[in-house]
Structure formats: structure tokens, C-alpha cells
Design a protein that fits this description.
This protein has six helices and no strands. The protein is mainly alpha-helical. It has one domain (18-174). The longest helix has 33 residues, at 92-124.
Amino acid sequence: MAEPLDASGTTVAPHRSAVTRGLEHLCALLVAVMVVLLSIQVVGRYAFDNPPDWTEELARMTFIYLTFVGGALAIVRNAHLRIESLHERLSPRSRTLLDIGLAMVGVTFLAITVYYSIGLLGRLSHQPMTAVPISKAFMFAAVPVGCVLMLIYEILRIRDYVRALARDTDGKARG
């Protein structure tokens, strides 16, 4: 599922897994839906002076899902922000060890977020959204769903880092 990485953490394979391509298509669809919803909102507000309430709420929900699914894609592409100054000064092996440590911090944070966000869904399941007859739990389900996707990709990234370390160690032992 996660794209193969070289020792520096850069994606080395030009192809993407079917799951990753599906998430990319989902994000593209969510952006298109958000553009349509916000366009309806703007036209309703400025042309008719009466914007529909449901467009804002659905656009917000779409944006939340886009944020968390997009976060998983950012992990696949190694595109999350980070400060490179220390990273660039390290040897490739030390860099990979640092990346493993940072990914472990991410895994810990994501696991805690999944645990607590699932508990929150039960409390929100009886609260409807204001303008749309949908439970607020559906909107906030984006948090555990997106975090589980990120968690899976982060664990696969750690696996790739460990494999890269093993290859480097095997190569040095033979050479």
C-alpha cells in the first residue's frame, strides 16, 4: 500500500497502489463536490440574497473528509512538513533511524487519536446536524477513518525504512 522508499525517504516507484489511486480519485471527487457546493452557496448569497443552509454544512463535512484522506496521501508522498536542517546533516543510516523514530511518534499520535475519536462518535451519534438530517457522528467519522488510513501508511513506511536499513547493513557486511 505505501509507496517504496529509498534510504532518504523519497518515493522510488513511479506507480501507485490501487488503494492509493482510489484515495487520490476520492480526494479529486471531494474537491469537485466542495466547489459545486460553495458555488451554490455563493450564487444563492449574492444572486438571490438567500443562500441555502445545507450547502455550507455539506461543504464543511466534505472539507473535513478531504483533510483527513488527504493527510493519508501526504504520508504516502512523504509530503508532510518537517524541518530538514538536522536531517540533512546526518549520515544516511542516521537519517533513516531518525525517520523511523519520527514515524513512531506519528504512529503513537495517530493511535491515540483513533482511540479517542471513536469514543467521541458514540456521543455525537444522537446529535443531528443543523441543516441536514444526518448525524454529526457521520461528519466526525472522518477523523478515525482518516487517522486509520494514515496509521496504516505510516506503519508501512516504517517497514520500508527497516528494510532499507537491512539492505544497507547486508550490503556493508558483504562488501
